[in-house]
Specification:
It is a single chain. The chain folds into three domains: 152 residues, NAD(P)-binding Rossmann-like Domain (Rossmann fold); 162 residues, Dihydrodipicolinate Reductase, domain 2; 85 residues, 2-Layer Sandwich (Alpha-Beta Plaits), CATH 3.30.70. It is 34% helix and 27% strand. Strands 7, 8, 9, 10, 11, 12, 13, 14, 15, 16 and 17 form an eleven-stranded mixed beta sheet that branches. A six-stranded parallel beta sheet has the order 3-2-1-4-5-6, with helices on both faces. The longest helix is centred in the last third of the chain and has 18 residues.
Length: 427
C-alpha cells in the first residue's frame, strides 16, 4: 500500500513562498493542499501553478483537518499570530520565517505548541539560507555558547558596503538599494536595526538557553553613518558594519544589542560584503566558528523553510513526540545588562575650531571622566578654519562616554561631535 503524502498548507506566496512551492510541488514526501494569498488574481512568476489550490481565506488552512504542516510566510504580527495559534490548537506543526513574531510572541506560541504536542521550526527566520538554529540545537548542543557577533541584515550590509567601496553618501546608496529591490519603500525596519534586533533576540534565546526580551535589546541603525566615517575607519584598520551581538558575562547576565561597529579588518565579519550574512559563535569546547551565506532571496530562504518542512514530515507517523531536540526547553528569562552599564571602545569624530590646545582640552575632559584615549588625530583643517579630530578610546563605560560627550559639546571651541561608533574588541 502506497504511503500517503504529508499535506501542507502554505500561507503566503510571495518571493519565499514561491521558492518553496517551486521546489516542493513534485516532492515524494509532501504535497500542497491549500495556499492562502491576498489576491488570487495577482500574476505570479510560477509556471503551471495549480490555481485550484489558492484561497484568500487563510482560516481554511489552519482549520483543515487534513493539513498537518502549516507554513507561514506572510510576516508581521497580524494575522500571523492568530493563524499560527489556531493551527497549533488544531494539532498542526508550524514552519515560519517570521522573525518579528518570534521575537515578540515566541514564548506564548512555544507554550501553546507544547500544550498541543506540536513543533514550531523557524530556521529561515534568522539568517535566510544559512543553517544556524538546527546546528545550535543539535551538533553544537554540548557547547556553552557565550558570545555571538553577526551580520543579519542584507539591506544594511549592502548599503554599508557600497558606501565603503564607492565613497557614496548614505542617502544616495539607499535610493539605489530601493531601485534594486534590496530596500523597501519604507526602509525603517532594516536601516534602523529592527530586523536585526528581532533576529538576534531569537538567536540569543536559543544559544544562551534563556529567554531574551526584545524590548530590552539596544538598537541603533545606520542612517547616521557618513562617508567620512568610512574613510577614517579604513585608515585605522577597520570596516563599519551593522553588528547584532549577544554576550553572557561571568554571572550569566546578557548583553544583547544591534548597532554600527568598527570591525577590525582581522575579523571575518569585516569581509562579509553586500547582501551576504554571517554568524560568528564563540563557546566551549568548539572555540570560534563563523557560518556565512545568502541571508535573503527566493531560493536561499526557501532552502531553510524546505529543510524544516521535510524534517517534520519525516517524523510524522514514526513517533508520538516529534523532534524533541528542536523544541523549546528554556523557561528562564535572562537578566539584561543596560547599554549604559556596558564597557566598550569608541570611535569619535569631532569638528572643532582650529585653536591651539583643543586636542589637549579634549584629552583632559576625557581623563576627568574616567576615559583613556588610545589615539587622537587631527587630520586636516577645512576652509572655514575648523579641524576634524578623530578619537579612539580605550575600554570605558557607556555612561562615562555619554557624560564626556555632553561636556565636550559644551566647550566653546567644539562645534559638534559628528559621530560616535562603538569599536569591536577582539579576544
Amino acid at each position: 500500500m502506497e504511503n500517503k503524502k504529508i499535506k501542507i498548507g502554505l500561507i503566503g506566496l510571495g518571493t519565499v513562498g514561491s521558492g518553496v512551492y517551486k521546489t516542493l510541488r513534485n516532492n515524494n514526501l509532501v504535497e500542497f493542499k491549500k495556499i492562502a494569498v491576498r489576491d488570487k488574481s495577482k500574476p505570479r512568476n510560477i509556471d503551471s501553478l495549480d490555481m485550484s489550490l489558492l484561497t484568500e481565506n487563510a482560516e481554511e488552512i489552519v482549520n483543515d483537518p487534513e493539513i498537518q504542516i502549516v507554513v507561514e510566510l506572510v510576516g508581521g504580527i497580524h494575522p500571523a499570530f492568530d493563524l499560527i495559534k489556531t493551527a497549533l490548537k488544531n494539532g498542526k506543526h508550524i514552519v515560519t520565517a517570521n522573525k518579528e513574531l518570534l521575537a515578540k510572541n515566541g514564548e506564548e506560541l512555544f507554550n501553546v505548541a507544547e500544550e498541543n504536542n506540536c513543533v514550531v521550526l523557524y530556521e529561515a527566520a534568522i539568517a535566510g539560507g544559512i543553517p544556524i538554529i538546527m546546528p545550535i540545537k543539535t551538533i553544537l548542543a554540548g557547547n556553552k555558547i557565550n558570545k555571538i557577533e553577526a551580520i543579519l541584515n542584507g539591506t544594511t550590509n549592502y548599503i554599508l558596503t557600497k558606501m565603503d567601496m564607492q565613497g557614496a553618501p548614505y542617502e544616495d546608496v539607499l535610493k539605489e538599494s530601493q531601485m534594486l529591490g534590496y530596500a523597501e519603500a519604507d526602509p525603517t525596519g532594516d536601516v534602523e536595526g529592527y530586523d536585526a534586533a528581532y533576529k538576534i533576540t531569537t538567536l540569543a534565546t536559543i544559544a544562551f538557553r534563556k529567554r531574551i526580551k526584545v524590548d530590552k535589546v539596544y538598537r541603533e541603525g545606520i542612517s547616521k553613518i557618513r562617508t567620512a566615517d568610512m574613510k577614517a575607519a579604513n585608515e585605522l584598520g577597520y570596516k563599519i558594519k551593522l553588528i547584532a551581538s549577544a554576550k553572557l558575562d561571568k554571572n550569566g547576565n546578557a548583553d544583547v544589542r544591534v548597532h554600527p561597529m568598527l570591525v577590525s579588518k582581522k575579523s571575518t565579519l569585516a569581509h562579509i560584503d553586500y547582501v551576504t550574512n554571517a554568524v560568528s559563535l564563540s563557546g566551549y569546547p568548539i572555540g570560534d566558528i563563523t557560518l556565512s551565506g545568502p541571508g535573503a532571496g527566493e531560493f536561499p530562504t526557501a532552502s531553510s523553510v524546505i529543510g524544516d518542512i521535510l524534517a517534520i514530515a519525516a517524523e510524522i507517523g514514526t513517533t508520538d513526540y516529534l523532534l524533541p531536540m528542536m523544541r523549546c526547553h528554556h523557561h528562564e528569562t535572562a537578566n539584561m545588562i543596560d547599554i549604559e552599564d556596558t564597557i566598550n571602545k569608541y570611535y569619535l569624530s569631532i569638528n572643532a575650531k582650529n585653536n591651539k590646545g583643543v586636542i589637549g582640552k579634549i584629552g583632559t575632559i576625557c581623563a576627568d571622566n574616567n576615559i583613556s584615549l588610545a589615539s587622537i588625530v587631527q587630520k586636516c583643517v577645512d576652509q572655514d578654519n575648523t579641524a576634524n579630530i578623530t578619537v579612539i578610546t580605550e575600554l570605558c563605560r557607556e555612561k562615562d562616554l555619554r557624560r564626556t560627550i555632553d561636556v565636550i559639546e559644551q566647550d566653546e571651541f567644539i562645534n559638534k561631535v559628528e559621530s560616535i561608533i562603538r569599536v569591536q574588541t577582539l579576544n
